[in-house]
Amino acid sequence: MNSAYAEKEREFVAGLAEDTGRDLAAWMTAIASSGHTERNDIIDWLRHQGFHFAWASWLERIHHNGGRLIYAGILPNEQHPANRAASTSETTEEPPSRTRPVRSVLQPPQPSGGDIQNLLSEAKGLRPLAEHILREVGRAVPATEFAAAGPLVTMSAPKPFAALYPGPKKLRLYANFGPAGTNRSKPAEAVNKGAPPFAEMLVLDDARSIDEDFRRLIRAAAAR
Fold first, then answer.
1. pLDDT, tens digit, 9 for 90 and up, residues 92-151
2. What pTM was estimated for this model as a whole?
3. Is the pLDDT of residue 183 over 50?
4. What is the pLDDT of residue 136?
5. Burial group, residue 112, by CB count within 10 angstroms (0-12, 13-18, 19+)
6. pLDDT for residue 106
7. Angle at 218 between CA 146 and CA 160, to 5 degrees
C-alpha cells in the first residue's frame, strides 16, 4: 500500500508546476513567506490560493516534514525502513491524485514581456503575498484587467480603481475606498517621491489581512 501511496505522491508533486504555475520548492517557500505556522492556518491559506482541501492538506504535511515527501524513498512493492512509522500513523492518509477535480489555481496576469512579474520580483520575500493580493482582487472584481505602469501594478474594470506598489518590506495598495475604508485605510504615501495614484492606501504585510473585509473594500473602490 505504501508503494502505491508513494507513486501517487510523486505524481501529485510532479504535476504541481504544470497545474499551479509553481513547483514544490516554490510552494514551500510561499508557505514559509505567508507567515502561517499552525496546520489549519496553512491549509486555509492554501485553500485561498485555489487548492482543494486534499491538496492543501498534503502540501501542509510536506511542509511540516521539512519540505520532504512523506513517502520519499519508498520503491514499488517496498516499504522503506525510514518510512515504516508512517504506515501506522496519520500519514497513511491517501495522497491526493492529480486526476481529482481541482479548482484552478489562478496566476497573476502576465502581460507581454513579463512586466507584472518583473514588478512583483521587487517585493522579494513578500512576492507570494503580492501574488495573493492580485488573485483576490481578480476574484472580488472578476472584470479586473491588470497592467504594469512604472513601479505600480494597476487594476481597471474598466476604469482604473486600484494600484499595487510591491515593496520588499511592505505592500501598498492604493485606491479610493470612500466611507468603506474609514476604519482601515490610511492617507496615501508618495510613490518614489511622486504623487500617489489614489488618495488612500492599505499597508499589507500579512496574508491574514486579505480577508472578506479586504474584498469588500476592493468592490467598493471598483464601484466608485
1. 577 877 655 444 444 444 443 378 888 999 999 899 899 889 988 988 887 888 999 999
2. 0.54
3. yes
4. 87
5. exposed
6. 45
7. 40
The three cell numbers of residue 155 are 487594476
C-alpha 181/C-alpha 161 separation (Å) is 14
Number of other CB atoms surrounding residue 115 within 10 Å: 16
Cα distances from 185 to residues 99, 131, 221, in angstroms, run 43, 20, 12
Q: DSSP letter string over the chain? A: -HHHHHHHHHHHHHTHHHHHS--HHHHHHHHHHHT--SHHHHHHHHHHTT--HHHHHHHHHHHHTTT--TTTTPPTT---GGGGGGGGSGGGSPPP-TTS-----------TT-HHHHHHGGGGGGHHHHHHHHHHHHHHSTT-EEEEETTEEEEESSSEEEEEEE-SS-EEEEE--GGGGTTT-EEPPPBTTBPPSSSEEEEE--GGGSSHHHHHHHHHHHH-
- Nearest 5°: the CA angle 146, 45, 87 is 135
Q: In this structure, what C-alpha cell is assigned to residue 72?
A: 520519499
pLDDT tens digit sequence for 2-54:
778 888 888 888 888 877 777 899 889 888 888 888 988 898 888 777 787 88
- Of 208, 211, 34, 53, the residue nearest 139 (C-alpha): 211
Given a cut of 60, is residue 85 above it in pLDDT? no
55 and 47 Cβ atoms separated by less than 8 Å:
no
Any idea how long the chain is? 224
